[in-house]
Design goal:
Elements: E1 3-4, E2 7-8, H1 9-26, H2 32-48, H3 55-75, E3 97-102, E4 110-113, E5 121-125, E6 136-141, E7 147-152, H4 153-165
Parallel strand pairs: 5-7
Antiparallel strand pairs: 1-2, 3-4, 3-6, 4-5, 6-7
Helix pairs in contact: 1-2, 2-3
C-alpha cells in the first residue's frame, strides 16, 4: 500500500477523520462530521478489512461512506441541520394547519399545529363561537406570542372564497 508522510494511507485517513470528528464536536453544525465519518470509516476499513486496498479503492470507499453519512445526517436531521421543523417567526404560523386539543373559544383553548416548531402546542382563540376538540383548524392570525387565532378549515376556506369573489366574508 502507498504511504503518506511515512505512514500507510489508511492510517492517515483514520487520523484526518478523527481530527474532523473532534473539530465537529468543538464546533457543532459545521458539517465536518460527514467528511470526518467518511474518512474515518474508509481508513478503518483499509486498516482492518481491505489491507491491500489501493488509493483509488479507498477514495471510492470514502465517496460511498460519505454519501451514506450525508443521507443519514440529513434524513434524521442531526443537529436539526435542515431546520424544517422550526418556524422562523410568528408570521410563519399563518396558514399552518393543526387540530384542536382543548376546545377553542374566544377566551381559551389549545391547538397542536403541524410543523409548528419545537413545541407545536399553542394557546388558541377563535372569533366565532366554540371549536370542539379534534377539529382541523387553520391559523388565521399568528398574533405575536404563543396565542394564535384559529378557525375551522371549512370556515377559513369559505372566508377565503368570499374574499376572492369580492363578497365580504
Amino acid at each position: 500500500m502507498e504511504g503518506v508522510f511515512g505512514q500507510s494511507l489508511s492510517f492517515v485517513l483514520v487520523v484526518i477523520g478523527a481530527v474532523l470528528c473532534i473539530a465537529e464536536a468543538l464546533a457543532p453544525g459545521a458539517h465536518l462530521i460527514v467528511l470526518g465519518v467518511a474518512l474515518l470509516a474508509a481508513g478503518l476499513a483499509g486498516m482492518f478489512v481491505l489491507s491491500g486496498a489501493t488509493a483509488f479503492q479507498l477514495a471510492g470507499l470514502v465517496l460511498v461512506v460519505g454519501m451514506v453519512a450525508l443521507y443519514v445526517y440529513r434524513y434524521y436531521e442531526i443537529y436539526e441541520g435542515t431546520g424544517s421543523g422550526q418556524t422562523q417567526s410568528s408570521s410563519d404560523l399563518r396558514g399552518k394547519r393543526g387540530y384542536v386539543v382543548d376546545p377553542v373559544t374566544p377566551r381559551e383553548g389549545r391547538v397542536d399545529l403541524e410543523h409548528g416548531g419545537f413545541d407545536s402546542s399553542y394557546a388558541a382563540r377563535t372569533t366565532t363561537g366554540t371549536i370542539p376538540a379534534d377539529t382541523e383548524v387553520v391559523v388565521v392570525d399568528p398574533g405575536g406570542g404563543n396565542v394564535v387565532t384559529v378557525e375551522p378549515v371549512a370556515d377559513a376556506a369559505a372566508a377565503g372564497n368570499d374574499a376572492e369573489d369580492g363578497v365580504p366574508g
